Structure formats: structure tokens, C-alpha cells
Amino acid sequence: MQLQTRVKTRPEIHVPRKPALRIVTVLISTLLLVQGCVTLPERNPLPAEYGYEASVLGGHGVRYWGDESLPLARGLPAEPTIEELQAVLPGLVRKELNILAISGGGENGAFAAGLLNGWSKTGTRPEFNIVTGISTGALIAPFAYLGSSYDHFLERLYTQYSTENLIERRGWLRSLRTDASFDTRGMRSLIAEYFNEEIMQAIAAEYQRGRLLFVGTTNLDAQQPVTWDIGAIASSGKPDALELIHDVLLASASIPMLFPPVMIEVEAKGQTYDEMHVDGGVTRQSFVFELSSDANAFETLEIVGTGRVFLIRNSKLEPDWQPTDRRIFTIGSRSANSMIRAQGLGDLYREYLASRKFGIDFNLAFIPSEFKADNHELFDRDYMRSLYRTGYEMAEEGYPWSKAPPGLENP
User: Fold this and answer.
1) How many of the other CB atoms lie within 10 Å of CB of 174?
2) What is the pLDDT of residue 309?
3) pTM (2 decimals)?
4) Residue 87: which H helix or E strand, with range?
């Protein structure tokens, strides 16, 4: 009787009897609890005025803004002699020039892995002087750079693992208070396993031969792409070089909102700051000719014959017609995929026109429209195995490289 009296006199603490209101009350209470329990480390972001002088590994020379030209012969005079160039770029000067660029595409990276391995099987795959990678392409690029003897790593990466090995879903309430929907500790562990000290030393050895390996991320604070010179990092001799490579590779494949960003520590004016890096595909899907804006750059190198660029786009090129549900998340996802497709095509056109400008033979590979396998999760093992086989078999039979992007076949 006393309880009834208390409830009547203090209705403000009475739990609503209607089920819907009760659910709302529980959700609000839970959200407040989550807000009180989940915290993220405080940031010390790099000030904009230090953007061009911040350094990693205690010095400069291992990364560059990706939307500016990256001089191949950095540190040399404006008009270096061929001997000066050869001392710095022994892997490029007076050599046959073969460039490989591998795009983003998530689990579709299985296509590039299969294509490269099938290409090795034919015995015609060249040694690449320059290799670049974005997102999933960043995970492939080091092994493509090291050569065909490392093909077994690519096969395992794209046929032996699935979503449960790489990421772990966070609860939606926790996601609201943190930086992503999934935890990528599994992906980081796998990167550390495959890209170990031995691999880093192998990359350093090739870098000393003058061959170049670049990976792209996006600096979200600056809204700019960043190009990382992985060979320079591997050769730096710094104790934290391997950890930085792991950070860069993970960042390049970290899809915003789905996967956490990677915070990279930098120094400027004697102070330590952090930068937020995410998927390189946010700002570009592939890159080659940011490597030089000089139209005579490749002529200066006195390359043997006509240089070749091979660009692997881990996607189909034609539109994918699908009825879209009239729901906010479906519309958002579909719109994001459409923007990525348009961006990827734009990158292909840019690289094609640049290759013509430099007089370099352009070669494009992409997932064929005939490939119809379905994927049922972010990293579907069966889907990746099927796509790997497709790329492998097409290369083994003699891949029909396209000489121009869609619409430019007859320039």
C-alpha cells in the first residue's frame, strides 16, 4: 500500500507501462551507460602549419604528399647528369622500365593476386622497377615487388582467410562512441605475421638495387593522399621501421567508419603529434604518374625501349545495376559504391593520358563482367577463391590487357 502511494506521488520515476516507451527508456539508459564506459585516447593532432615539415622515423625522405609530384631523383641537381642519376636510381637508369600499379578493392584484391600468380606461371612476368599499391593493393604490392618467388604468400592471403580471421564486429552502441564498426586486431596480426623482419630486409635489399615500392594512404586531417616510400623505410635502420610499415599497410586498407583509423606519430618543431590515416582509396584508387610531373623525366633516365605500365583494377568497370531499397543505410552504401566506381574510372583516365604524354605503353586489367560469384560477407573466402582462380586462369591463358580505359579504346 505504501508502494502504491509513493508511485502516485512521484510519477516522474515511474517506468512507462507501454512496451514501446519502455524499450526507449531501456535504450536511452544503455546508451548513457555506454557513453560513460567507452572512451578513446585524447588526440594531439599535427597543426596545419607544420604539415610540410613533420617527420617520421626522425627524418625526412620516406613520404610525400600524393597529390604533388614525387621527383624520382630527389636530392639531385635540377639537371643531373646521367652518372648522377645512375648513382641514385640504378634500377631505372638505362634499364627496361616496367611499372605495376595495384588498385584498391577490398576482397576483390584476390583478382590481382590470382592474375600475378598466373602470370608467373607463364614465365613472362617482368621484374617491375616501380610498384605502387592502394588499400588491398598495398597488401599485394610488397610481394609483387619482391617477385614471383613470393607468390605463395599472395595465394594464402587471398584464399585461406575470411572475415572472422580479420575483423570483429563491435556492438552498434559501442560503435556510436568509438571510431569504427569493426575491430581490426586480427588484420593487424596477420600483417605482422606476413610482413616480418625477413620481408622488410628483402625489400631493403631491392631498394638498394634502385627499385621502388610505394604505398598510398589518406591523411584525413589534411584531406590529402600520402605516398609512403616503403623501400626507404625498410632501409632506414630505425628500430621502429617495421612497426611503421605495419601501420602504413593497415592504414591504407582501413575503410573509414568500418575500420578504425591508424594514428601515426610524427615530430615537428621538437614536439610529438599524431596524424589520422585511413584507406588510400578515399583520395585515389590507384596511382602511377604522380611519381613525376616532368614530361622529360623518363627520357632523362634513358630507358631501354618503350616503357610499360601495368595497372590492375580490382573491380569491374561497367555499372552494376541493382534495385536499391528505399532505406537510409542502403542508399548510403549504394551511393558510396557509385562514388568509388566513378573515382576509379577517373584515375584510369588520368593514368592513361599521362602514359601517352610520357610515351609509355599502357596496359589495363580488370575483373571481367562474366564473373558472377556472390559474396555474403566483407571477406568471403569462397568468393575470393573463385575470383583468385578467375585471375589466375585468365593470366595463364594470356591476359588480354586493355590498351585504354572504357571509351578511349580508339583515341
Assistant:
1) 15
2) 96
3) 0.87
4) helix 82-88
